[in-house]
Design a protein that fits this description.
Strand content of chain B: 15-25%
Strand order of the largest sheet of chain A: 3-2-1-4-5
Distance between the termini of chain A: 7 Å
Number of helices of chain B: 10
Number of domains of chain B: 1
Distance between the termini of chain B: 39 Å
Number of domains of chain A: 1
Radius of gyration of chain B: 18 Å
CATH topology of chain A: Nonspecific Lipid-transfer Protein, Chain A
Order of helices and strands of chain A: HHHEEEEHHEHH
CATH topology of chain B: Rossmann fold
Largest interface: A-B, 19 and 23 residues
Number of strands of chain A: 5
Shape of chain B: globular
Oligomer: heterodimer
CATH superfamily of chain A: SCP2 sterol-binding domain
CATH superfamily of chain B: Alpha/Beta hydrolase fold, catalytic domain
Largest sheet of chain A: 5 strands, mixed
Shape of chain A: globular
Largest sheet of chain B: 8 strands, mixed
Chain lengths: 125, 285
Amino acid sequence: MSPADRFAALPRLLAADTDLLRRGRWLAVECRVDVGSEPFFLSIREGSLAALDRGAKLMRSTAFSFRATDEAWTNFWKPMPDPGWHDLFALTKRGAASMEGDLRPLLQNLQYFKDLLALPRREAN
Amino acid sequence: MAPALEPMVGRYVQLEIDGVPHRLYFEEAGPKDGGGIPLVCLHTAGADNRQYRHLLADPEVTKRFRVLAFDLPWHGKSTPPDGWERGEYRLTTQSYTAAIRAFCTALELDRPVVMGCSIGGRIVLNLAIAHAAEFRALIALEAADFQQPWYDTAWLHRPDVHGGEVCAALVSGLIAPQSPAASRHETLWMYMQGGPGIFKGDLYFYRVDGDLREKVKTIDTRVCPLYLLTGEYDFSCTPEDTLRTAKQIPGVEVTIMKEVGHFPMSENPAQFRRYILPVLNKIAD
């Protein structure tokens, strides 16, 4: 399964995590996550994924984006990631990921987003 | 049933730091009959002395060491100095060094061992550079002469982002994935409880004022032994940062700790114990 295919399971993984839904309950935002060369557009409402649209969307507006290479996601989602691959900021520091745009909603809900983007780790590839 | 009391005792000490009156909180535990080699423990930026509660409760340590862990001014239960509301908090090499030396003097500690983590590790390097003869040994955890920043500290103190939550969320990635969940979240809880702008003010020392490149080359471990220990999952102070620093210091002992991140003593006390006991035993023997 490709890293993008693993990420496509996000709605199901999030729906099963009542604690993460609780922690994100104040959040409403449009954001973009790139898994390798594949963009995903997340519409988050009250901590839930109202939509997860895969693939390029013309003129789609988002608050912020988080992009990482296939190698970065593959390592980040290992059940026990290796040092330097185990956190979103470890990825950005090593140059394997980047964040752009209005980062305020990301920083306001940072642990939520860290845990959201780590959800595919729960399913063995 | 007798109360399940832990061995450490907490007290306040009044002292002056650079001529300014302060009231510092500290906890200590040591040999039952008193004495012991004083071991002063320095917490990480934006946290407090609770990070050392497992060391303070470890009879293998306290049978020979008098362990003292104090909250820096503005941290934990140490109050800020009078008039704090009129300025922005910023830790500097000078103010941090002065606080440690004032505490050791006030407690009348005879050539203590000092162990610090993160900013505490960095300042331990400065003690080795500038005041080595005052100490029996120095232990720097997660320390290097310099580290590349990995986020903008402006996010740590602004009205539209919860300071406690963002501080904890940022540092959460510095904890090793193997660390027990309870210890991970206890470590993060302390970050959630810091005063507004304090973590950011500590990092002024770390990022701007405390660059020790070149200066570490002057450390003489014959005057005071120096030990560096860094966790393999620390991407803030990486093992490479520590090893690069160690290369410049003849006689330093360096250890890279497996399955540990930036907060060894609180994120995984059992794993840290495996690494720190041999160091403490060597100092005590």
